[in-house]
Write a structure and sequence with these properties.
The chain is mainly α and about 140 residues long. It has 3 domains: about 30 residues; about 40 residues; about 55 residues. It is about 75% helix and about 0% strand. The longest helix has 28 residues. The protein is globular.
Length: about 140
């Protein structure tokens, strides 16, 4: 499946410039995220100050969104810069990043702050993790 995806992206570059392609991907993702929030999280397409589509522009939601957008993105940038300086071989951070979904699901389950992903995501990760390791290690051995 990944080889088909890489062939698709290489063919896509001959038709669309990269920025137009990314714009289309972002538009489709935004549309899908809007549908997901409507069907799963109870968002409404009205002017309700808590669940409405423009509720992000209220004082409470805008402050929390700006916190997530600025401080967490800055922390992620600093973390990535430090990790790339600490580990010269890119396979070590890549292997560590494969554990991120499992750790995030575990923290969400432990704190009981979110319904999705459920308990089955932990079980699913047990099946996904070996495949991720095979892909990462295969790329590492192929490049060496």
């Amino acid at each position: 499946m990944m080889s088909e995806f890489s062939k698709y992206t290489s063919d896509l570059r001959s038709y669309y410039p990269p920025f137009l392609s990314m714009m289309l991907v972002n538009i489709f993702n935004s549309f899908n995220m809007g549908l997901i929030t409507f069907f799963f999280n109870g968002a409404t397409f009205d002017l309700d100050p808590f669940w409405g589509i423009f509720s992000i522009f209220t004082d409470v939601h805008f402050i929390s969104f700006m916190y997530m957008a600025i401080f967490l993105a800055l922390g992620q940038l600093v973390s990535v810069l430090l990790i790339t300086k600490m580990f010269p071989d890119p396979i070590i951070p890549a292997l560590g990043m494969t554990l991120e979904p499992f750790i995030a699901c575990f923290i969400v389950q432990l704190a009981n702050v979110q319904n999705l992903p459920g308990d089955f995501s932990m079980i699913g990760f047990i099946f996904i993790f070996p495949g991720l390791l095979i892909v990462l290690m295969g790329q590492c051995f192929y490049q060496r």
